[in-house]
Amino acid sequence: MKQKRLEAILEILPVCDSYLDVGCDHGYLALMIRKKYPDATVCASDIAEGPLQMAGKTMEQAHVTDIPLYLSDGLRSVPVSCECVIIAGMGGQTITEILLSDKKYAENTKYFVLEPNVEVEMLRQWLGDNGFRILDETLVHDYKYYPILVCEHGNQTQDAYDVMFGPVLRRQPTAVFTEYWTNEKEKLLTYLSVMKPTDKSYVSYHKRLEMIENVLKNGEDC
To answer: What integer best gives the mean pLDDT of the chain?
Structure first.
């Protein structure tokens, strides 16, 4: 269990009457939400029986009996609407597929808390192109770096910097944000040092490096 990641998700959650954790795995996050918001309705779902059985054992060990567990491919088979849907620990592409799995369910959800373990830039672009806006973001380091996004329905204009760095994070950079992008800058410098200008990725890597240096130096003014 990556405790810092789960705690960061819990910290950034909007206060709601009901929560659904999609892809609940062992059910740790749902249990943490129940403890923080004892009066809220908390549900959890997973696409496979195995994780649901493990989540059931987690609830049993914690003597919690009021978190229903649903076998569901995305949002398709979840029988109750929830104000906030959490989709964490998956790739950006998988998250978009879950959001599209039941459009009516998604339309009736107020907040979405998304934690992609890869493809965050692709996810930000997709959200902006499909009627979502990012309200809040954070970045946590728990063995690796995890971006966490809070979204709602609405329009949002994004530029290339917003997509790459996050519309909130680049304007309110944290120490973890600066650490992550400083590391990425060093990686790119290493790659470029052994590449030729004629190499296929040279131009895109160089452009990415310029953007990172600009954000680290100028922040929201870039």
So the answer is: 95
Are 184 and 120 contained in the same domain?
Answer: no
Whole-model pTM: value is 0.95
Pair (112, 207) in one structural domain: no
Clarify whether residues 71 and 102 are in a common domain.
Answer: yes
Range of the domain at 115: 3-157
Per-residue pLDDT of 123-181, as tens digits, reads 999 999 999 999 999 999 999 999 999 999 999 999 999 999 999 999 999 999 999 99
Torsion of CA 168, 170, 174, 178, to 10 degrees: 150
Do both 146 and 111 map to the same domain? yes
d(CA 181, CA 174): 11
CA nearest 213: which of 146, 165, 159?
A: 165
What's the CA gap between 196 and 191, in Å, rounded? 10
Cα torsion 33, 38, 41, 47 to 10°: value is 30
Angle of helix 175-193 relative to helix 202-218, nearest 10 degrees, comes to: 150
- Claim to verify: residue 142 and residue 211 sit in the same structural domain: no
Same domain, 50 and 137: yes
Residue 56: enclosing H or E segment and its boundaries? helix 49-61
What residues contact 208, with CB distance under 8 A and at least 6 apart?
Answer: 164, 188
Query: Are residue 81 and residue 147 in the same domain, yes or no?
Result: yes
